[in-house]
């Protein structure tokens, strides 16, 4: 339930933050798009006005200069025409004058195509008309051979017209400069207008954003904060709190209804679970009592079985000594009595030890693995016929060589850096003894080698017992830890099938894990145990 409330609070917080960010991002995008649109529109208008103005001014200046040059050229041509006496030369000069006049007319039409300067162009047209009249008057005087008067008209009226025309051309150029200045003022004013519009948009969007934030806070953030507060109470174990929102028909209203229904169900389930927990506690007490009774029962049974078995074994020994040279059949039967009696004793001992595993208090200590192994080898000396052993240290490995029986050599290799075990010494010794005993019982024809390695990490101690014995079929690596499980016939290898079950019980009681690994028969086996480091 605490996990559920944590997840619920996290989801509500993420929803609140996501909603705020989404709306803020949306408004910011609108503001940016508006500013970009205004800037783009203003830039396009300014560019258009700038390019059209520059083009018009350049066009007018170029045409005015051409007209000015052509008028002075025509003045010189008219002077030569008046002074010429050869008719052929006069006609040639007259043709040049007409060509120059055509060019002036052509430039005049192009110059006056701009309607923005109609007043100025009206004066220019007037001077052009006077110039054309002067030209025709000179032609007429020349045809009448009045050269002196023609020259007088050219030098007086012609120069006056040229002077006035030059003044008009200068005025035209000044007007164009004024256009350029106006263009720069327009661009500057447009820039300030652009800044003004951008400022207005930013202020308006800020006000809208602030208004939206207030609306969001009142309609979303405040209810979500209330939901978070309820979730924190649920996390603390108070399932009586309920979510209250203003608008029950909104999305948050539906969420609140779902949460309230969930809390109702949780509270109902909690009431039911409290009853179940109480029943389980009672059942657990009863199970513990039954377990205690069962352990007592096993102890009694073990005691009751031990007594007659001891008697049988004793009388069997006496009978064997007294009969001496009895028939082989009798001796064989007596041996079977003794063997089965010993087997029953071992079984009873194992059952007794198995029953005691769950009742012994866990007085854990830090124990060096090497000392445990040395103690176990000493205890196994008589039981497994293990004789003297020698200790050799090579590099980071401790090698213990010993004899199984009188001649069969075996070796036990330990990593020098094995970590300590935090366990009950007597019980962990039983685990080690079982592993070594099984390695000896199920050894192969080649000399037995047992390797013990270990690591410490993540607060756990991991030990691995590896031998080169017969190995285990992989499908039985879990089954061998069951009670009374045997994989070979009793006549082949002695044992009760309780040892590994007791190992599992001891390791699990230490809050650890145990498992076996093997690649198959003939490939040896590895037994892993993992125990908490502290």
UniProtKB/TrEMBL annotation:
Asked if Ribonucleoprotein is a keyword of the record, the answer is: no
Q: Where is the Histidine kinase domain?
A: 300-534
Name the CDD domains for this protein: HAMP, HisKA
Give this protein's Gene Ontology molecular function annotations: phosphorelay response regulator activity; phosphorelay sensor kinase activity; protein kinase activator activity
Q: Which reaction does it catalyse?
A: ATP + protein L-histidine = ADP + protein N-phospho-L-histidine
Enzyme class name: transferase
Q: Where does it primarily localize?
A: membrane
Q: Which UniProt keywords apply?
A: Kinase, Membrane, Phosphoprotein, Transferase, Transmembrane, Transmembrane helix
Kindly state one GO CC term assigned in the UniProt record: membrane
Residue spans crossing the bilayer: 20-42, 194-217
Claim: tRNA-binding is one of the keywords in the record: no
Chain ranges of the HAMP domain: 218-271
A single GO BP term for this record reads:
osmosensory signaling via phosphorelay pathway
Name the SUPFAM superfamilies on file: ATPase domain of HSP90 chaperone/DNA topoisomerase II/histidine kinase, HAMP domain-like, Homodimeric domain of signal transducing histidine kinase
Source taxon at top rank:
Bacteria
Protein's UniProt name: histidine kinase
Q: Which organism is it from?
A: Candidatus Auribacter fodinae
Taxonomically, what lineage is the organism?
Answer: Bacteria, Pseudomonadati, Candidatus Auribacterota, Candidatus Auribacteria, Candidatus Auribacterales
